[in-house]
Every structure is written in C-alpha cells, then in structure tokens.
Design goal:
This protein is mainly α and 195 residues long. It contains 9 helices and 3 strands. It is globular.
Amino acid sequence: MDCAVALSREFAARLGSFGREGQRPSLSVGVAVMHHSDPLGDALELAHRMEREAKKQRNSLAVGVDKRSGSEVFAVGPWGTVDVRLPRWVQLLASDALPHGVAYELRQLVVSLGERRQPPKGLVESEARRVLLRKRPERGREEMQLHLVDELLANLSSDGSEADAILRRAREILVAGVFREAAAVSPQRAQEVKR
C-alpha cells in the first residue's frame, strides 16, 4: 500500500500539469495480497484483476485480498479515498476502537435491504448508523464513539447509492483487517500503524 501511495504522489507531482484538463494522464494501480504459499500465477492473476477494477474508475487504487480461507475481498476507489480510508480503518481496528464484526454486519445489512429494489433515501444510512451504534468496541467495554460512526458514514452520497457505498466501506474494513493482522505479526510495523 505504501508503495502504491508513494507512486501515486510521484506520478501526480511529475505529470499532474501535463496535458489539458480531462486529457491528463492517470494512474490506476492494482494490489494483490495473498498467502505466501499460494502459487505466484494466482497472485499475478489477482493483481491483474485488481488493475482492471482500478481502471474501471480511472485514476484509482484497487486492493484485493485472498487469504485462502474465506472468499476474496477487494476495496477500490479513486486516489484520495480508499488509500486514505484503509490506513484509518487499520488504525481503528488495531486500537480496538472499531469492532472487528462491523464489516460483516454492514455487509449483511446491505444484503438484507437489497431485497428491496430501491430502498427509500436515507434508509440504508440510518440502518447502518443503528448497527454501528449498537456495536461495542474495546472488547465490549465501551460504546461506539459517535464521531467514529460519523466518520464511517461520511460522504456516502458522493459514493454512488447508499447501499453500494456501505458495501464498499464494509469491504474496505475487511481488507483493513488483513493489514491489521499482518501488522500484529510484525511488532515494529504495529507501532507504525498506531501512530
């Protein structure tokens, strides 16, 4: 992730003023995270799929995770969104401010509401808010902080439909959980994540 973000910044610094508005070069990056013993061909195939996902939105980042157990999950969004939110979700998960089950509950919420063709505007967000406020971080000792709920639900309307936006946030949190687990394995990296 750090490498992709650094590449994006360097690309923007060197080529940001090249060409006319709307015709400037863009950078789409696909990142694959796999188990070390999986075949390299599978990792390359996932990386290529993530690159295609990133290119669908143009000038975006797509991060795909295949942990061998469970299903593949990916987060995708334009630069300045998913690359900013993922480290934040990692930080919140590492500090136990964000309960680990939040992503699964949000995803289930979208699936259950998805049975309705077009839920009324505001329904998905208000239900997501209810789910989040019911969650108990700090291993069940605390209530979810209101500012974190607001942060998780910020800018949903600019992210397509509410249901799609909530599903994207859930996927981001699932991907962030893998990065949090990896940081826990490396004590030095875990300290960097907490900063």
